[in-house]
Amino acid sequence: MKRRDATRIERATADDAAEIAELYLASRTQALPFLRRVHSDAQTRRWIADTLLTTRETWIARSGESIVGVLALQGEDLDQLYLLPGWYRRGIGSLMLTKAKELSPARLTLFTFQRNARARAFYEAHGFHIVEMGDGTGNEEGEPDILYEWRPDRS
Ligand SMILES: CC(C)(COP(=O)(O)OP(=O)(O)OC[C@H]1O[C@@H](n2cnc3c(N)ncnc32)[C@H](O)[C@@H]1OP(=O)(O)O)[C@@H](O)C(=O)NCCC(=O)NCCS
Predict the structure, then answer these.
(1) Distance from the alpha carbon of residue 124 to the mean position of ligand 1, in angstroms
(2) Bridging pattern class, strands 129-134 and 108-113
(3) 103-135 pLDDT per residue, tens
(4) Domain housing 130
(5) Residue 112 to residue 115: CA distance in whole angstroms
(6) Would you say residue 155 lies in a domain?
(7) Does residue 64 contact residue 87 with C-beta atoms inside 8 Å?
(8) CATH label of the domain that carries residue 76
């Protein structure tokens, strides 16, 4: 069932930090089980409250009272996009990406892990192209990654 019609995209506030952190931790655990854990959950919660929400333009997808997605932009860089497990493949990621394209209409870039097949299929379905394959030396998890780019005239 598609639930995107009932989902609102809103700017995140400091009050959302704890719920965003639980979503982020659950989504990473579910979607990226292969990833080496380099931060404790407590460090991640602090990073969301003190860094993500203060230095990135952070948006949430809300369904009813619950936050079901989070997206963070830093200029043209789509820094984070995570949905709550159980909410995938209902068009909510697309709704959030549409927001990111509105906010950065000339270009978006992002990194994803090569083993994240779901995310790769999602970004490629939305017109992102591979710029560079990395061997993992560029991220703290040491996991091979991909730099993707979207431009409106190339998608
Ligand atoms: C990646 C993610 C944001 C995608 O959001 P989503 O709401 O599940 O995706 P959508 O429902 O909007 O999908 C849009 C299109 O992308 C493609 N797509 C999405 N998930 C796919 C999958 N698992 N397999 C193949 N194609 C997929 C399809 O073309 C889909 O259109 P369709 O459903 O009409 O066939 C979401 O699955 C997620 O949060 N995953 C876990 C966290 C993560 O890996 N984030 C990315 C970190 S870089």
Answers:
(1) 10
(2) unpaired
(3) 999 999 999 999 999 999 999 999 999 999 999
(4) 4-150
(5) 9
(6) no
(7) no
(8) 3.40.630.30
Backbone angles phi and psi of 115, in degrees to 5: -80, -5
Name residue 83's amino acid.
L
What spacing in Å lies between the alpha carbon of 87 and ligand 1's midpoint?
10
Task: Quickly tell me which residue has 């989070």 as its tokens.
Answer: 70
**In this structure, which amino acid lies at residue 37?**
R
Both structure tokens of 82: 């995570």
Instruction: State which ligand 1 atom lies nearest to the alpha carbon of 82.
Output: 39
Q: Tokens 């997605």 correspond to what residue?
A: 69
Paired tokens of 61? 């997808």
Is the dihedral angle over the CA atoms 71, 73, 76, 79 positive or is it negative?
A: negative
pLDDT value of position 5: 67
Give domain status of residue 102, yes or no: yes
